[in-house]
Amino acid sequence: MKRLTVPAIRARKQAIAEGRGEPLVMLTAYTVRTAQLLDPHCDLLLVGDSLGQVIYGLPSTVPVTLQMMAAHGAAVVRGSYHALVVVDMPFGSYEASPRQAFESAAFLLKETGAAAVKLEGGEAMAETVAFLSDRGIPVMGHVGLTPQAVNALGGYGARGRSEAEAAKIVGDARAVAQAGAFAVVIEGVVEPIAIEITRAVGVPTIGIGASAQCDGQVLVAEDMLGLFERTPRFVKRYGDMAGFISDRAATYAGEVRDRSFPTAEQTYAPKA
Ligand code: KIV
Ligand code: NA
């Protein structure tokens, strides 16, 4: 199976508009085995900087480093064959200048083999999005609730409840799309904003806590599978992996303690 390309993802916008395209399916993946299992079902795999909380127990995505993103990005590329892999640019690796962003993004693509990066921000990042796009690095935008800005935003509540904030978010999405982003994630906004953006921009919008009318959807896999404990309202739980794991760990612990594991089946007999 040939891996999906950036032009193929971008072209989905027109296909959807003409009624012959399905919404884009994206999930996060941080590890090789998760990537292998999710890959056949997804158009895009996102190596999200949400790995800071989900994998490393950090309080936010702010402390995540380029090295973490490179290591997990490489694992996800090794575990996937079909989906386009997008790697998040971590906080502090791109905001200072287009040149800083290019160096960080080039490092991530070289280290991982991924085809694209994602970065948070709107108008302030438009010049950077153009700089990377013009130099062979496809960029996915991310507007609305931008978790790397948690210290400025003061929390993770939905964005765009005031008219001014709504207009700012729509302007941000237009700016990054205009600058050459091949798709835009819209996170944690009141629904009319997501619909307006989806109508306004010429590239696919991928919603998370946004709208069913976006051109695609993304969730954090661990949230969707019921593995991670704190999940926002917009997460639908499709399973209870946390329950499964603790239940099986309890069974194993019981069998070790009462010596019913291991049995002859799991032990080596000496040669006859
Ligand atoms: O880091 C992440 O998982 C993300 C998605 C939730 C869009 O950026
Ligand atoms: Na992210």
From TrEMBL:
Catalytic activity: (6R)-5,10-methylene-5,6,7,8-tetrahydrofolate + 3-methyl-2-oxobutanoate + H2O = 2-dehydropantoate + (6S)-5,6,7,8-tetrahydrofolate
InterPro entries, alphabetized: Pantoate_hydroxy_MeTrfase, Pyrv/PenolPyrv_kinase-like_dom, Pyrv_kinase-like_dom_sf
Residues that, per the record, bind Mg(2+): D49, D88, E120
Binding residues for 3-methyl-2-oxobutanoate: D49, S50, D88, K118
Pathway entry: Cofactor biosynthesis; (R)-pantothenate biosynthesis; (R)-pantoate from 3-methyl-2-oxobutanoate: step 1/2
Chief place where the protein resides: cytoplasm
Enzyme class: transferase
Cofactor binding comment, as recorded: Binds 1 Mg(2+) ion per subunit.
Membrane-traversing stretches: none
Entry keywords, A to Z: Cytoplasm, Magnesium, Metal-binding, Pantothenate biosynthesis, Transferase
Annotated EC: 2.1.2.11
Cofactor(s) for this UniProt protein: Mg(2+)
Subcellular location: Cytoplasm
One Pfam family this sequence matches: Pantoate_transf
Protein family according to the UniProt entry: Belongs to the PanB family.
Function summary: Catalyzes the reversible reaction in which hydroxymethyl group from 5,10-methylenetetrahydrofolate is transferred onto alpha-ketoisovalerate to form ketopantoate.
Entry-linked NCBIfam families: panB, PRK00311.1
Protein name: 3-methyl-2-oxobutanoate hydroxymethyltransferase
Species in which this protein is naturally found: Sphingomonas corticis
